[in-house]
Amino acid sequence: MESRFHQELEVLKMLILQMAALTERSLVNAIKALLDRDVKLAEKVISGDREIDMLEVDIDRQSLKLLALDQPMARDLRFIIGCMRIAVDLERVGDQAVNIAQRAQFLSNRPALPPNPIMEQLGETAIDMLKSVITAFINEDSDLAVEVCQMDDLADELNVTILRNLLEYMVNEVAAVERSVQHIIVSRCLERVADQATNIAESVIFIQKGVNIKHHCQHQ
User: Fold this and answer.
1) Is the pLDDT assigned to residue 1 strictly greater than 60?
2) Distance separating alpha carbons of residues 157 and 57, to the nearest angstrom
3) What is the model's pLDDT at position 2?
4) In the predicted model, is pLDDT for residue 42 greater than 70?
5) What is the pLDDT of residue 211?
6) The CA-based dihedral angle spanning residues 204, 210, 212, 217, taken in that order and rounded to the nearest 10 degrees
7) CA-to-CA distance for 45 and 52, rounded, in angstroms?
8) I want to staple 189 with a disulfide (CB 3.0 to 4.6 A). Which of 43, 96, 136, 162 is the partner?
9) Within a 10 A sphere around the Cβ of 87, how many other Cβ atoms?
10) Where are the alpha helices (DSSP H) in the chain?
11) How many CB atoms lie within 10 A of CB 10?
């Protein structure tokens, strides 16, 4: 009985890792589609979102089965609840990747704005946070999860800088307003990915330590 339960827990973990891999790839491809003005890659991100959504459903099903049939206690219970939370945040990251891919489609056949290295830095930060927090989950590393939380401040600062710069640009380049707004939306999507990576970090810490640090993870 005990062995079967732990095998089912392992299935749950594998589903999370599968969903995380797809979500990470989707985000990387969405940012690449934007920067390279690659419509086909953007379409691939959008069409691939259904697979991420279906994995969230599978994770819910597996989690509820474990909760109902096995009535787990202590860390096992925290692991199942944590996985359900993580799946929700991964699905939201997938949605943000779709939003970025849709902006990439819109911008691909319009004149490019000047290069924006801060946007690239924000994209790299969001990807780094997502990769690191999945590593923290795999390795049961709450210290790495706290580091991810602390990276969120940088993402927030970069987003504000991008917003400020684009607003100034729009004042002087009225013809570029619509394209600039699309870039502001991309920046906001990337900042939200950083928030979702922070939420996942909070779930990792909850699983490992049994403490709920929701909404004050950065100050650990």
Assistant:
1) no
2) 34
3) 63
4) yes
5) 72
6) -50
7) 11
8) 96
9) 27
10) 2-36, 39-70, 74-108, 117-139, 142-172, 177-209
11) 10
